[in-house]
Amino acid sequence: MKKRKILKIVGIILAVLIGVIIALACLGNVAQAAGLVDNTIDKNHAYSRYGLDNYQLDFYVDTGWDWLPWNWTDGIGKNVMYGLYVITNFIWRISLYLSNLTGYAVAEAFKLDFITKMAGTVGKNIQTLAGITSGGISSDGFYGGALLLLILIVGVYVIYHGLIKRETAKAMQAVLNFVLIFVISALFISSAPSLVKKVNSFSTDISSAALSLGTKITMPDSNVKGKDSVDLIRDNLFAIQVRQPWLLLQYGSTNVKKLGKDRVKDLEATSPNKNNGEDREKVVKKEIEEKKNNNLTISQVGNRFGTVVVLFFFNLGVSFFVLSFTGLMLLYQVLFIIYSMFLLFSCLIAMVPGQNT
Asked: pTM higher than 0.85 for the full model?
């Protein structure tokens, strides 16, 4: 029986050591991958106020007397818990980089605003295809080439329905439809470059207003004045995917007012890489000893592991939907440009009697 117990303890020690080595190796890979994401520090925005390393999970346990023989069993237990913490922090770090990458991808997608950059070019191409400019109609475009044919078709239609079939109302409707569509489309095409810019600017203003309103609802304490839509999106994503989960894992609560802003800031603003981590360790020890924060001790390691796993899949789902919508946004911009180019053909077809419904 004693041999079995000894073998069991040795097996646990070996398993813990192997697990810790694997986890640390994985953490090393994550640290190397950290350079691939945006790590710019800008205190004007919540998502870039501090580095990602500041949002690591903290763990502290006093191992000063573990070398004594009667504390060896407790020491093994502490090492097991530390190994579980390393795995927990590893999963959390992946979630951090995933969230940061999502925000960075959204920002880059918004910078690739095809419509804003190509509005003038799209408008001029529409004018070239139609043959209509602010100076008048030329014979080089589709409008100039098809105008006589359309007038002939409308004339035949009016003669047939107005004179032969005595359907005067139908004939007059065809003439009125032809004149209205031609005048409206010609006015639009003649000022297409400026109109496309104005439509895109109007759409952008609506999007910014909607984002500001959504931010005020979801984050009533945030200041949205003076921020563009990209910063608002990244701040919201950061709050949902990083800061709120981090507060929950570190303090067991997301209520900053109740916890104390200065208390949260002390830990949040202290980098774990500065002064060999001693500054961060002092804040963590103060949290445990003075604030009785058990979330940073052995007792909550298992709970934090389960919470981190749930949060990882939650962040994965959020990132998937955000990146999907970002891709759709880029697709819609491309489709808008394509549909704008083919708008004049729709107008030409609509001028044909019976084809405007």
From this structure: no
